[in-house]
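User: Could you go from structure to sequence for me? I need the amino acid at each position, not a summary. Structure tokens:
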């Protein structure tokens, strides 16, 4: 029977918890406004299925045992307070289920305790919350075991764990009462301290899942150039959702395990970035917003420039985070502040930005030479007066100016002509899509390039775009719709954007083209980050390879969602890798170990980086690097 004193303790515990969470909420809500709507369906689907957590099997299964081992008995206890009764057989089955879940709960708790204690993670989370949880379990088992030793000393199938525990316990009502009271008090401590320990993620993580991104993963958050902060210089400059990300981070280490920069020995650790932001949030909670300094940059003890510029925006951290945290968008906001707010763009990237400002391309060639690659190829310009032009072929800077990638552009032209697809190019009217400028932190330059491109897209009434570069594809498809003047998604004049591998595979399926000349080679596919993880396109390159006669396909060790970055994204093509190992060398070594003749790519950055990486290995018989589009053209 619960006494008045017990009710007072329960009330105090919940008051402490509510006050604590209210203070935590006030900290992450101090961020800038961001329009996010919740998703109840997604939250319940996630909670019931644990699909993302189970991608890392061992801790995933342990977490599943913790979750159901805690949730089901808690529901039973709450229902019991309202006097619910059920027939004897279902009651015994429910008792058996509770015992089995108790075993699972204990196993999960011991797994995480052992994992922290043995230092499996570089950053150990506090052990006290797990010890509290363990004490709750052990006192509960002891109370149940003592009860059974008093009432049912023989084996009872509905409480196997309780019977097993009862073997070593005295049939003492006083001991049972002691265990019950200790169990009760530790539960109250657990509840009262929830907001102040690692266990706050029990609330923060589901909340972060509830407010998870609904827009395209590859779309960077826009920023106003007229008012508000330029990027993020302090935690006050982040949005409330970005601060909630830091609140929800459980430091599980999955982002760091899969981050190519971290793997290669560079100083970037996505979980450290989130932890640094959280620590400053906690400092604000303790000392108020007047504390100094709050500046994240360039405070070397917090997040350094080397960390920020090591990111290739490959989205591995976002892909593998079990609670939908996005470290990358914080890094981009800090880059924006460095570049536009402080003028601290790395020296080696300045020529690319200057070329974009003056010539509209990263190569510094200019619009007069934009169509030189198509000389004597009878490549038509797009023209709104020509009604039968089905698509605009977006060539991109690499496809127009880089000698190696010009071959890919010409291969695509030959495919379109073989399929008798009417098409055109913008030629001298095409500018860089703006992806390098935006990922390097120059939002103003991105918007300038985007608006110039949008002007010509509207002038020529373009309805369908096919692009060879995943970075151009992502920018045109996911980011241009947020730029003023572009056709909004869902309107009758919406522009469809396809990557070349998608479009060519449709042509093969429709029998518009048929690869017929065999390519008697062992082939693998390197998944481009901005095609795969960012936009979820994995199968078209593989389907294309398998459609070519006499090809023998083999997956790399790291593929699909776990594919390893080439190092060219996020401005990496123009940044020097001064720290750690080169990413393209690491990937090239993996390709060489696969013992293939050809590695296929679908991205100009990947083509360049892999080719350089394989050459650096100085192999006796190096695999050849080809764009998948080249393979198709060679087979026609």
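Assistant: Here is the amino acid at each position, in order:
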């Amino acid at each position: 029977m619960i006494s008045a004193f017990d009710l007072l303790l329960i009330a105090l515990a919940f008051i402490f918890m509510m006050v604590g969470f209210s203070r935590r909420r006030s900290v992450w809500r101090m961020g800038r406004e961001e329009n996010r709507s919740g998703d109840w369906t997604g939250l319940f689907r996630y909670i019931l299925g644990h699909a993302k957590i189970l991608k890392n099997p061992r801790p995933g299964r342990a977490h599943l045992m913790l979750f159901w081992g805690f949730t089901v008995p808690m529901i039973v206890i709450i229902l019991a307070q309202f006097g619910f009764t059920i027939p004897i057989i279902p009651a015994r089955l429910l008792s058996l289920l509770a015992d089995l879940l108790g075993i699972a709960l204990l196993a999960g708790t011991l797994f995480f305790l052992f994992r922290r204690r043995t230092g499996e993670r570089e950053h150990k989370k506090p052990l006290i919350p797990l010890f509290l949880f363990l004490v709750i379990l052990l006192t509960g088992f002891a109370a149940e075991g003592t009860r059974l030793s008093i009432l049912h000393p023989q084996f009872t199938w509905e409480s196997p764990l309780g019977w097993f525990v009862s073997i070593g316990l005295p049939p003492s009502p006083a001991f049972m009462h002691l265990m019950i009271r200790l169990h009760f008090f530790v539960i109250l401590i657990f509840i009262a301290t929830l907001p102040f320990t690692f266990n706050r993620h029990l609330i923060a993580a589901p909340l972060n899942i509830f407010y998870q991104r609904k827009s395209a993963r590859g779309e960077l958050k826009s920023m106003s150039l007229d008012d508000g902060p330029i990027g993020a210089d302090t935690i006050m400059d982040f949005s409330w959702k970005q601060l909630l990300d830091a609140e929800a981070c459980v430091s599980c280490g999955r982002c760091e395990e899969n981050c190519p920069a971290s793997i290669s020995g560079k100083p970037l650790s996505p979980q450290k970035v989130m932890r640094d932001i959280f620590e400053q949030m906690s400092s604000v909670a303790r000392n108020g917003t007047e504390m100094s300094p709050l500046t994240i940059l360039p405070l070397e003890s917090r997040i350094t420039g080397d960390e920020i510029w090591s990111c290739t925006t490959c989205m591995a951290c976002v892909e593998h985070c079990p609670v939908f945290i996005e470290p990358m968008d914080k890094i981009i906001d800090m880059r924006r502040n460095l570049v536009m707010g402080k003028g601290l763009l790395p020296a080696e990237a300045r020529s690319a930005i200057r070329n974009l400002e003056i010539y509209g391309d990263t190569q510094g060639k200019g619009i007069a030479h934009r169509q030189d690659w198509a000389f004597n190829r009878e490549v038509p310009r797009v023209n709104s007066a020509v009604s039968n032009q089905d698509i605009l072929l977006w060539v991109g800077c690499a496809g127009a100016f880089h000698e190696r990638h010009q071959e890919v552009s010409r291969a695509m032209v030959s495919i379109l002509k073989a399929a008798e697809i009417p098409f055109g190019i913008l030629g001298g009217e095409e500018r860089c899509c703006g992806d390098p400028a935006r990922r390097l932190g120059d939002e103003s330059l991105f918007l300038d390039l985007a608006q110039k491109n949008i002007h010509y897209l509207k002038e020529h009434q373009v309805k369908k775009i096919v692009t060879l570069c995943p970075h151009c594809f992502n920018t045109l498809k996911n980011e241009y719709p947020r730029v003023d003047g572009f056709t909004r998604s869902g309107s009758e004049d919406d522009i469809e954007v396809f990557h070349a591998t998608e479009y060519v595979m449709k042509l093969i399926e429709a029998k518009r083209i048929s690869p017929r000349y065999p390519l008697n080679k062992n082939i693998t596919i390197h998944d481009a980050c901005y095609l795969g993880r960012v936009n979820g396109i994995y199968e078209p390159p593989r389907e294309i390879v398998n459609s070519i006669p006499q090809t023998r396909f083999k997956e790399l060790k790291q593929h699909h969602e776990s594919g390893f970055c080439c190092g060219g994204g996020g401005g990496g093509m123009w940044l020097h890798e001064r720290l750690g190992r080169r990413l393209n060398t690491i990937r090239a070594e993996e390709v060489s170990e696969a013992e293939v003749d050809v590695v296929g790519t679908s991205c100009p950055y990947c083509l360049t980086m892999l080719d350089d990486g394989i050459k650096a290995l100085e192999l006796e018989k190096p695999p050849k690097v080809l764009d998948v589009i080249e393979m198709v053209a060679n087979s026609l």
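One structural detail worth keeping in mind: The radius of gyration is 29 Å.
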